[in-house]
Amino acid sequence: MEERNIDSAQSELKHNKDKANGDLNPKKDVHCIRAIEKFRNKDDTFFIPPDVKLAALPNSVSDCLYQRITTTIQYACAKRSRHGSGKDGWNICTDGCYKPNNKTVIYVLSIGNDYENSQSIDLHYKINVIRHKPRIKGTDIYVYQKNKDNLGGQSIKLGTWIDAVKQGLNDQNILIIDVESLTESVVDHIMMSGVLNVIHQFSIRISYGDPVSGIDYLTALQQLRMIFEAGFRIYGSRPEWPCIIANNKDRTSCVYLDMVYHKCRDLSKR
């Protein structure tokens, strides 16, 4: 587990803003750059337009906007800790009110084996980490609680699992989602349930497409907009290049986003 200080966080924020403003080839992408300027906020982040305008965008412009949205840091988390090793490790923002306390619960829905991550969390914070693995049965998604060997016991429907997450009374709860091709379905359930209303941090490995067919930009941008409208801001972005698009080596269909709610939750209302 490692922590980072405010200087490194601010440096990363500046680096990512610089990257977002200048990593395209002007000769190749000049029209795209001009097209997305109208989606730039005053703080150099970008917003996603309503569905009607979004659906009308040329694919090249959607691609450009998606790249900017997923690589631009929106919030400077001065301190953070990392748990686990390699690309599947978890980041936790530990700034002020975001720092986990003894009532914090971390809910995880993931495909991979993240037992090492949960052990690191337990060692450092002594808080409850509840891990589940999703599987499709017919047309429904079921989840299985994980144990040390990444195997689960009895299954419950995704909706039942989400209801259990919503029961948490501490608004410092953390939600981690890493479900590969199930991203769209799982995010749909999460947004419809209002579960983000009781979550303080939200990390998700988005996967809207695959290296062969490319990225479903419309769905990706629609769902990201809903997450932002729910009050969450990106403090960490990690594109995963093993998911690189076959016909566009500058894009990847998998990006790991770490987000926090844009302000401290008012726990006094609980």
TrEMBL record:
<protein>
    <recommendedName>
        <fullName>Methyltransferase domain-containing protein</fullName>
    </recommendedName>
</protein>
<feature type="region of interest" description="Disordered">
    <location>
        <begin position="1"/>
        <end position="23"/>
    </location>
</feature>
